[in-house]
UniProtKB/TrEMBL annotation:
<feature type="transmembrane region" description="Helical">
    <location>
        <begin position="34"/>
        <end position="52"/>
    </location>
</feature>
<keyword id="KW-0407">Ion channel</keyword>
<protein>
    <submittedName>
        <fullName>Uncharacterized protein</fullName>
    </submittedName>
</protein>
<dbReference type="GO" id="GO:0015280">
    <property type="term" value="F:ligand-gated sodium channel activity"/>
</dbReference>
<keyword id="KW-0739">Sodium transport</keyword>
<dbReference type="Pfam" id="PF00858">
    <property type="entry name" value="ASC"/>
</dbReference>
<keyword id="KW-0472">Membrane</keyword>
<keyword id="KW-0894">Sodium channel</keyword>
<comment type="similarity">
    <text>Belongs to the amiloride-sensitive sodium channel (TC 1.A.6) family.</text>
</comment>
<dbReference type="InterPro" id="IPR001873">
    <property type="entry name" value="ENaC"/>
</dbReference>
<dbReference type="GO" id="GO:0005886">
    <property type="term" value="C:plasma membrane"/>
</dbReference>
<keyword id="KW-0812">Transmembrane</keyword>
<keyword id="KW-1133">Transmembrane helix</keyword>
<keyword id="KW-0406">Ion transport</keyword>
<keyword id="KW-0813">Transport</keyword>
<keyword id="KW-0915">Sodium</keyword>
Length: 220
């Protein structure tokens, strides 16, 4: 082997990023060269073995599927439902500050509602020059006016629960009155929250869930 080829081989071993070749080239003693040759050969052999195993695994196209089915009890959440008509119209007509909002909204949109709204002499309640939607503004003003009433007033002006909730069933059994709680909402007035005594849903299926039938009567 010529000295030029040996020098080039030594330079390659010293500068290559393959680990081990540089150790072999720089080793002065024969035992160190043999050690690094054996270590490099073992590493290369292990690499070839791993590539061979992975190639066989890829070619086999094996599929490993693990399916486990577990059953556990689920807790039924509390359900809150409200009437989109927060107050009875018959009671709204008795409140001049609420009738004023109806009159202004009727005039702004030229709806021509047939109900005999009593005329009011109160200052305008809806600022139509704010750039916002007049209907949205009327809703916000109505909500603010409604917020000034006490819980008892809201309760008396809302549709009674026995008239609003026509039917309620849970897990195939009629809901008990103690399972329905009245709560006040700033947007919808008096709302109702259903929370079963036994919140664990033991039976599944459409007929075993919660069934609720309500009446939204616009003629109140």
């Amino acid at each position: 082997m010529s000295e030029t080829f040996r020098a080039k081989l030594r330079d390659f071993a010293g500068y290559t990023s393959i680990h081990g070749f540089g150790r072999i080239a720089d080793s002065v003693f024969i035992l160190r060269k043999v050690f690094w040759i054996c270590a490099l050969s073992a590493s290369f052999g292990m690499c070839v073995f791993q590539v061979y195993r992975l190639s066989l695994q890829f070619i086999s196209e094996g599929v490993n599927t693990k399916v486990s089915v577990t059953f556990k009890e689920l807790e039924f959440p509390a359900v809150t439902f409200c009437n989109l008509n927060p107050l009875k119209l018959s009671d709204v007509l008795q409140k001049p500050e609420l009738v004023q909002i109806l009159n202004e909204t009727d005039n702004a949109f030229d709806i021509g509602i047939n109900y005999p709204y009593p005329k009011t002499s109160l200052p305008y309640a809806i600022p139509y020059d704010t750039g916002a939607s007049p209907l949205h503004t009327a809703k916000e003003v109505f909500r603010l006016r409604m917020g000034s009433y006490s819980n008892d007033e809201i309760f008396n002006m809302s549709i009674p629960m026995q008239d609003f909730i026509l039917s309620c069933r849970y897990q195939g059994v009629a809901c008990e009155p103690t399972e329905i709680t009245q709560i006040r909402d700033e947007d919808y007035g008096m709302c109702y929250m259903f929370k079963p005594k036994v919140p664990i849903a033991k039976l599944a299926g459409p007929s075993m869930g919660m069934y609720l039938l309500v009446l939204c009567d616009l003629q109140w």
